[in-house]
Amino acid sequence: MNSSHISQQIYAKLLYQPTNNQKKIVELFSEYLAEGDSSSIFVLNGYAGTGKTTLVAAIVAALKNIGIRSILLAPTGRAAKVLSHYSNQKAFTIHKHIYRERTNASYESKFSLNINRDKDVIYIVDEASMLSSHTASDSVQFGSGSLLEDLVQYVRLGRNCRLVLVGDNAQLPPV
């Protein structure tokens, strides 16, 4: 599938005339999908009110039309609910989707990285600025203790799965 076909599908799902910066994002995202390198990560970064969530909703709708499955994730239940509302697709918390409870709780962590059986899926993570790449100093409850590293590893465990991170540099840093 070529990038111009992908971008046409996204533009068709936008309910307004996109700004020049939004057009640039649509074109870059379309190239990202068309290139086929599942190891690369697409980062959509912008301040509040720049249309990131609306653009993501158009992308999700376009992916559905093209026949590409997307899974929507967010670091909190509230963020997942907002993302789900805008995109008309169910969204999950990252923790719920990528971790599973260990059967033997005597290990270092109570939850380990789940098995990713997905193939050809685009994972779109909203509010990605809230993700920390630092391992928690206290007892590890989830996987390695680094949600960002675990997320990337989980996506790469799938076959030909891709990761899109959507965030805002001006947002509060992760706790």
Radius of gyration: 16 Å
Order of helices and strands: HHEHEHEHEEEHE
Overall pLDDT level: 87
- Tell me, briefly, the overall form: globular
Number of strands: 7
Strand content: 15-25%
The secondary-structure class comes to: alpha/beta
The percent of residues in helical segments reads: 25-40%
- Taking the alpha carbons of the first and last residues, their distance comes to 40 Å
Largest sheet: 5 strands, parallel
- How many helical stretches? 6
Strand order across the largest sheet: 1-7-6-2-3
The low-confidence parts are none
Detailed description of the structure:
The chain has 175 residues and is α/β, with parallel strands linked by helices. Helix content is 39%, strand content 18%. The protein is built from six helices and seven strands. The longest helix has 16 residues, at 20-35. The protein is globular.
Topology:
Elements: H1 3-13, H2 20-35, E1 41-45, H3 52-66, E2 69-74, H4 77-87, E3 91-93, H5 94-98, E4 99-101, E5 111-113, E6 121-125, H6 147-157, E7 162-167
Parallel strand pairs: 1-7, 2-3, 2-6, 6-7
Antiparallel strand pairs: 4-5
